[in-house]
Amino acid sequence: MNIAVVGTGYVGLVTGTCFAETGNHVSCIDINRDKVERMQRGEIPIYEPHLENLFERNIKQGRLTFTTSLEEGIRDAKIIFLALPTPPGEDGSADLTHVLNVAGQLGKILKDYKIIVNKSTVPVGTAEKVRDIILKSSTVEFDVVSNPEFLREGFAVDDFMKPDRVVIGTRSEKAKKIMTELYAPFVRQGNPVYFMDERSSELTKYAANAFLATKISFMNEIAALCEKTGANVDAVRIGIGSDDRIGKRFLFAGIGYGGSCFPKDVQAMIKIAEQAGYDFKILKSVVGINEQQRESLVAKIKAHYGVPLKGKKAALWGLAFKPDTDDIREAPALYIIDALLKEGVTVSAFDPEAAKNVKQVMGDKIAYGKDEYDILRDADFLVIATEWSLFRTPDFNRIAALMKTKTIFDGRNLYDLNQMKELGFYYNSVGRETIGD
Ligand SMILES: NC(=O)c1ccc[n+]([C@@H]2O[C@H](COP(=O)([O-])OP(=O)(O)OC[C@H]3O[C@@H](n4cnc5c(N)ncnc54)[C@H](O)[C@@H]3O)[C@@H](O)[C@H]2O)c1
Question: Which of 5, 6, 11, 46 maximizes ligand 1 atoms within 8 Å of its Cβ, making it the mutation to test the pocket?
Answer without folding.
Answer: 11
